[in-house]
Amino acid sequence: MSLLAPVAGGCGSDRPQRGEGTVQVVTSTATLADLVQNAGGRRVEVQSLVPRFAYPHDWRPGAGTAAALEDADLVVMLGGELDAWLAAPLERGGPARELVLLPQLDPLADDSHWWQDPVRVQRAVKLVRNELARVDVDGAGYYEAAAAEYLERLRRLDDETGSCLAAVRSARERIVAQHSGFAYFTDRYGIEIVGPRAGRGALGRRLWADTLGPPGSRAESYLGAFALNLGVIVRALSDGERSCRPRV
Ligand SMILES: [Zn+2]
Predict the structure, then answer these.
(1) Quick count: other Cβ atoms within 10 Å of Cβ 238?
(2) How far is the CA of 111 from the centre of ligand 1 (A)?
(3) Helix (H) or strand (E) holding 56
(4) Are 225 and 213 in contact (CB under 8 A)?
(5) Residue 234 Cα distances to 41, 189, 230, angstroms
(6) Domains 23-152 and 154-237 share a fold
(7) C-alpha to C-alpha distance for 186 and 188, rounded to whole angstroms
(8) Do the beta carbons of residue 150 and residue 125 sit within 8 Å?
């Protein structure tokens, strides 16, 4: 089913005021915004406080943060250290509903980078879908359908990641990346990706860690960025002999 397809529902005079793009959601990061957009489809309008190219660590919320929070129906946070900067603006005033994902995703201590594990991402998308259905009760069926389609793509990503890594598993199991935000990838797949200070050597190409690429690029979405990373990781583990390009 396409995300664009309307979901069957009542069309009588009791039609809800809610509709396309009317549920305003604010997220801390662009990756999280992409997940929420996929769970919410066209009924939600999502704004990321940290722009897609910007590094969220030590982000300082700007003047627009308070206004964005004030207008929102829901704020969705990663949880953990990465968007802790949102706590103060939220204390000063924010939407009635907040969804903090990390505590519900089998956290690795305070590490926020759970999106590096597509299985945890599936759980997160279900939590977002459920929360959207609470905020916008009449959209529950729509969110169910939108999230189901995306969850299927996430399951396929996880399957293909497992297959690609199984093919190179014996070669080498530790690679060095430019960022130390890959503990959840290691937790899921057993491939150790350590930060620049923890190991010698280099990956050669950078991984998409906390940001997304420009619209129109292959890294513009979570799925695309993860797939690109996987290709880089498989090439690094196989000394350039194997490639992997998951169909997402
Ligand atoms: Zn990070």
Answers:
(1) 17
(2) 9
(3) none
(4) yes
(5) 32, 12, 6
(6) yes
(7) 5
(8) yes
- In tens digits, the chain (248 residues) has pLDDT values of 334 433 333 333 333 456 677 899 999 999 999 999 999 999 999 999 999 989 999 899 988 899 999 999 999 999 999 999 999 999 988 888 999 999 999 999 999 999 999 999 999 999 999 999 999 999 999 999 999 999 999 999 999 999 999 988 765 667 788 888 999 999 999 988 887 766 565 555 789 999 999 999 999 999 999 999 999 999 888 888 899 988 88
Domain boundaries, given as residue ranges, for the chain:
23-152, 154-237
Q: What's domain 23-152's architecture? A: 3-Layer(aba) Sandwich (3.40)
For residue 30, what are its two tokens?
A: 């662009």
Q: Please give the Cα distance from 98 to 64 (Å, whole number).
A: 18
Question: How far is ligand 1, taken at its centre, from the CA of residue 189, in Å?
Answer: 19
Judge: domain 154-237, CATH 1.10.238.10: no
Question: Residue 42: how many CA atoms within 13 Å on its side-chain side?
Answer: 8
Distance 183 CA to ligand 1 centre (A): 10
- The model's pTM is 0.89
Cα(169) to centroid(ligand 1), Å: 25
